[in-house]
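Table S2 (text version). Query chain:
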Amino acid sequence: MNNDIQPYRTIFVGELKQLTGLSTGGRDGQLHADAVLARDGAGRPILRGTGIAGALLATLDEFDLTIPAEISARLPKNAEVVQKYESLWLMHHAHLAGEAVQTLVRPNVAIHPWTGAAVDGLYFSTEVLPRGTTWQLIIETEDWRDRNFGKPDEAARLLALALEQWSAGRCWLGRSPARGLGWAQLEALEIYRLDASSARHWPDAGRDEAGNLRWLKAAGAAEGVHKGITLSTLTEGMGKKRVTDWKLYTGTLTLGQDEKEQDEYGLDTLSTLAKEFPADPDVWSDWRTDATQIGKRSVTAEIDLDSAPAWTQRADGGVELMLPGSAIRGSLRSVISAHWRRAGNAVWAPNGLKKEPESLDDDALLPLFGSITHDSNLLISDAYAVGERQPEIYVQELHAEDEFTQGPYGSSKFNRPCLVSGTFQFKIAIREAVTDTGAGLRNDAAATASEVLAAVRVLGEARMIPFGGGIWRGHGWAHLALEEVQENDLSLSAQNRDDLAAEAV
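Corresponding structure-token output:
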């Protein structure tokens, strides 16, 4: 922009695409869920500007930077001084960038540390939007006020630095990013720099948000709108010294990989349960195997199933099987904690020991996995099916045994579906401190994280980490491979981008 032109605003317009399911805090939902989605006055899902701003500031915390009070004044709890000006960042609520998307309720349950089974009384549910859902992101910076503070372009440059990280897939929003939800990526970003002559056009109260965006995209220098700006041009010359960095990994869970193994050792099975399942027989036919027959009856919607494999809807309305990140995380913590305790280390057991740990002396795994009152430095995404081979379902007819007759006990028969084939991939991100001021793992804790991952690799390759339910009945002993992501980038591969583009609204 010409230095003689008075700055007005910089506008960042893009799309936030969910890489996993997403749930943002709300209340008074229409579904019977313990944690419902945030909605606007028309009942539509919404990402509130406050949540987006908080996530951006958390991203900037990874760098050796001082966030000016003109953007976010982080006052002590008992501070008497109150910020007397609005932030230089103007946050728009994010709305769905297309038609309405169907939400669903995801069940969650805690794992007992001694048995690996579900803990009675610790079931809860969360309302979730499916992966592939796209949000319209609009953020503005008040450049004219920025200049008045004597810091021209600082607000736009700091925002651009955070959005660079989001473009690489290092974006976590809403509830439970450590347990599978809230992983997102910024795409299709466009940056517009407006000078003072455009103030009478932007924003125009006579147009809705879509109308204002249409004007912005069509306008040119004659209307005071300047284009061709990129994130890299805004962040050029900035000190990008990190105080916190991420180690990134890809995990691959495989069932039924080797048919010879299946013949010799029996079926690999995985039982991850949901409360409901689509009743449409055509959905079943996509995943049904020849083995999914009980007697002479084919598996259809008429068979009464006691549960369903974990599944989610796609943004296009279809259905796909998946493994919740919470289930993967719970299994890893349970197994590693058991190994650590057997080695004589102090490890806190959620849902087992009531005392909350406070330091490494109480729990060597506390900085990695976190606790009720401590942040987790280990984030695990949901796992989705990859490859050409479709996941397949097997239905088992089970019953409790009468100890006297050695036959079925009363009416205890039930039909339990489980997965017998499929490959599922997920991501792991571990936050480590680069400097003494970083908030991630440091020193002994980082060394412990390396030990944990080494143990996960060995045990996973040997099929010694059970996932899901029924681990005492043969389920869950899948093959796990863990690989470090060398390029330090969580963005999707080209193939997955194409897949999600086809599913997106």
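Notes on Table S2: Residues 14 and 188 are 5 Å apart (CA to CA). The radius of gyration is 25 Å.
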